[in-house]
Design goal:
Blueprint lengths: L2 E5 L5 H13 L4 E4 L2 H4 L7 E5 L6 E5 L3 H8 L5 E7 L2 H13 L2 E6 L5 H9 L6 E6 L2 H7 L9 E4 L4 H12 L8 E21 L7 E8 L2 E8 L9 E9 L3 E3 L5 E3 L8 E6 L4 E22 L5 E7 L5 E4 L3 E4 L8 E5 L4 E3 L2 E3 L7
Parallel strand pairs: 1-2, 1-8, 2-3, 3-4, 4-5, 5-6, 6-7, 7-8
Antiparallel strand pairs: 9-12, 9-16, 9-20, 10-11, 10-13, 10-15, 11-12, 11-20, 13-14, 15-16, 16-17, 18-19, 21-22
Length: 358
């Protein structure tokens, strides 16, 4: 879990109390100040992080050389360093500090994230915590994903109390583990021409991954990515041939979108055969006219699930155990993997209302 340090040193005096209260109520990991007296007012649920003279639970000292680092590394457990990375020498100092100290705060002069990647790689197996200074929420959102892991902590000087809560929400964002259901195929119907959507993502799917798509908001089928070999064409491990444009697709935060709504920059949820999920970014959505077929299946308790896809052998869905099934070869009684949310949907949000789809 990533953590937030809220820097109140530059906050206007009239806003400081509100920002500190927000940090406490939002359960920020720490409040950073150069005022030891202010830090003494914090409850024990929030770490007091001092940059300057005095005592605090965590004391951060700005260092510029290896001698200062050597002194800090032999001091109290709560000691940490602030390193302003402006060149190769200070970058190496930041790497050494991240290996040696419980906390290392890094403030990068340049906008590129390459120096952060280098520090993260150097400290990959170190027990200490790396905290990166971020100028705003947008940069924080980038930093947490650098090298797929990001730094453990984000230090932000918020403009107001609202940004404190926004940062905590950003750091707590995660994708859920889904409880997938086994569905049994009841019917296969071949239709004429219709529009289907290929979802091309900015992600390399695993062989047991795809996205959840369905005609009804209460039932989805796991559509396989094109990571498996195909005759006459190369694999496209970034793509899911997902279904007809009217279909729902499950995304992050329990939201759905119509496939017709996806486009460059949209997000979707990659799901594997065990129900593990991750957020993926859509690079483009390709809408083309193709022959269609509809798969109708039911769950163990009789819930009907429907999915309309392109009528072609190379379109695939996943069954239990990540078994790859070509849609044109499905037989009655075949088993597929699906997901059965309990709520109806209104503009993609779950809502407890009566709705019948058929």
């Amino acid at each position: 879990m990533k953590f937030a340090w809220i820097d109140v040193r530059g906050i206007a005096p009239e806003l400081r109390a509100a920002v500190v209260d927000a940090a406490v109520h939002a359960k920020a990991h720490g409040v950073v100040s150069d005022d030891a007296a202010l830090l003494q007012t914090l409850p024990p649920t929030v770490n007091a992080v001092l940059i300057g003279d005095g005592d605090a639970a965590v004391k951060i000292t700005e260092i510029t050389g290896t001698d200062e680092l050597a002194r800090l590394s032999t001091s109290d457990t709560g000691a940490g360093a602030l390193v302003r990375v402006v060149d190769d020498r200070t970058l190496r100092l930041a790497c050494d500090a991240a290996v040696a100290l419980p906390y290392t705060v890094v403030d990068f002069a340049d906008p590129t994230k390459i120096p952060l990647e280098i520090v993260l790689a150097a400290a990959d197996r170190a027990p200490g915590k790396l905290v990166t200074v971020c100028a705003d929420l947008e940069e924080a959102g980038i930093v947490v994903d650098v090298l797929e892991r990001g730094s453990e902590g984000i230090l932000l000087a918020p403009k107001d109390a609202g940004e404190v809560f926004a940062l905590i929400r950003l750091l707590e964002a995660s994708t859920p583990q889904l409880d997938l259901a086994t569905l049994t195929v009841d019917r296969i119907e071949h239709h004429g021409l219709g529009d289907r959507v290929c979802v091309d993502t900015c992600t390399h799917f695993a062989e047991d991954e795809g996205i959840l798509v369905g005609s009804y908001s209460t039932g989805f089928i796991l559509c396989c990515s094109e990571t498996h070999p195909l005759p006459y064409m190369p694999t496209r491990p970034f793509r899911v041939n997902a279904g007809a444009l009217h279909s729902y697709v499950l995304g992050p935060d329990n939201r759905t979108n119509y496939l017709s709504e996806l486009g460059s920059g949209s997000t979707a949820l990659a799901v594997n055969a065990d129900g593990k999920t991750r957020r993926v970014v859509v690079g483009r959505a390709k809408l083309e006219s193709r022959p269609l077929l509809t798969i109708t299946a039911h769950s163990a308790d009789g819930l009907v699930v429907s999915l309309t896809v392109q009528d072609d052998w190379h379109v695939r869905v996943l069954g239990p155990g990540a078994k790859v099934r070509n849609v044109t070869e499905l037989q009655l009684g075949d088993e597929l993997l699906g997901y059965l949310p309990t709520d109806q949907r209104h503009v993609g949000y779950p809502i407890g209302e009566f709705c019948r789809e058929s």
